Amino acid sequence: MQQIDRSEITPKHVFLSRREFMRAAGVSAGVVALAACAPSAPAAPAASSAVAGEAAVATGGLAAAVGTLPAALAFSEPTASAATDELGDKLNKFDEITNYNNYYEFSLDKEEVAPLSTNFTTYPWQVEVTGLVNKPTTFAIEDLIRNFPQEERIYRLRCVEAWSMVIPWVGFNLSALINAVEPKAEAKYVEFLSVLRPEEMPGQKTSLLDWPYSEGLRLDEAMHDLTIMATGMYGELLTPQQGAPLRLVVPWKYGFKSIKGIVKIVLTDTQPVSTWAMAAPREYGFYANVNPEVNHPRWSQATERRIGELGGRRPTLPFNGYGDEVASLYAGMSLTANF
Ligand code: MTE
User: How far apart are CA 72 and CA 78, in angstroms?
Assistant: First the structure.
């Protein structure tokens, strides 16, 4: 078969915004070489620390303070590679992205999430990947950051509440993580669960939602090249209010699908019922693809307010502007019935 250059098969905007990240000094040369040379070959799950309590071993001698991720895991380029996304839309500022957050575990008030989450413990942290897989594995966060190649993805985030931002994430393909645990043929869906820690998350002391927050994707959506697990933003590790140390980002779906503070991922043969679908099934469907033609029962989705932008609203794009890449996932499906 003819050799095709990666730039020819990768969607243009992904290729343009794709920049591999190295971590700052303190990570062994061997690990950096792995990240640079093997973009689609994560370390074998056996190399990961498998259980809680092994974090100290897994850091490989990094000075790790309980509470926050070891400084040596920080990325070496604390900035974004471009000032705009592929449509020419300006990136939102770091302060805008980190001071206007939906994270109901902390507060319903978007501006209260940052101060309430300042001391949230993001280290040590484990993520269990299990269910219909051959190699169920519990990964320490440092292994996910060191062993899976981290890259920048500049994506629009469109909230179901009709506001949006442009965010320069750092992260890795969810497909790489799923491949590492070897999904069984019966696996059709992926379920995600957030951390349950009411002692640190005041919102979880209320019955506002059915905790822990959960979400789900079809397996082909989860394996799509645009779907990432984010570990950073603007070249820095994620802040607690953004869902540190690990969150999902699915740019063509409403923001509520992009679940924060993930501790468990389960491959299953049954469509998961996510937190919002459980709370209000008429308002929040399983697919939640950004669609200007299907209104929320209580407001229009035809337009949106870009945070930080003065002036009027802008039209909402089908699939949040990623239709060329993802519309084929839904060929033959009614996007009204499957909202
Ligand atoms: N994940 C958890 N665990 N809890 C939440 O309340 N809110 C969701 C999503 N992920 C939420 C979550 C919603 S409604 C949106 S719009 C995005 O996170 C917001 O992400 P941001 O605060 O980083 O912009």
Answer: 13
| Predicted pLDDT of residue 30 | 31
Closest to 143 in 3D by CA, of 259, 42, 285: 42
β-strands 262-268, 126-131: how paired? parallel
Q: Give the H/E segment covering residue 276.
A: helix 275-279
pLDDT in tens, 303-339: 999 999 998 899 999 999 999 999 999 999 999 999 9
Model-wide pTM > 0.85: yes
Hey, what are 178's tokens? 């799923």
CATH class assigned to 6-330 = alpha beta
**Atom of ligand 1 lying closest to residue 157 CA:** 24
- 260 CA to middle of ligand 1, Å? 6
Encode pLDDT of 79-88 as tens digits.
Answer: 898 999 999 9
CB atoms within 10 A of CB 96: 14
Residue nearest to atom 16 of ligand 1 (CA): 255
Helix (H) or strand (E) holding 174: helix 174-181
Answer whether 194 contacts ligand 1 (Cβ < 6 A).
Answer: yes
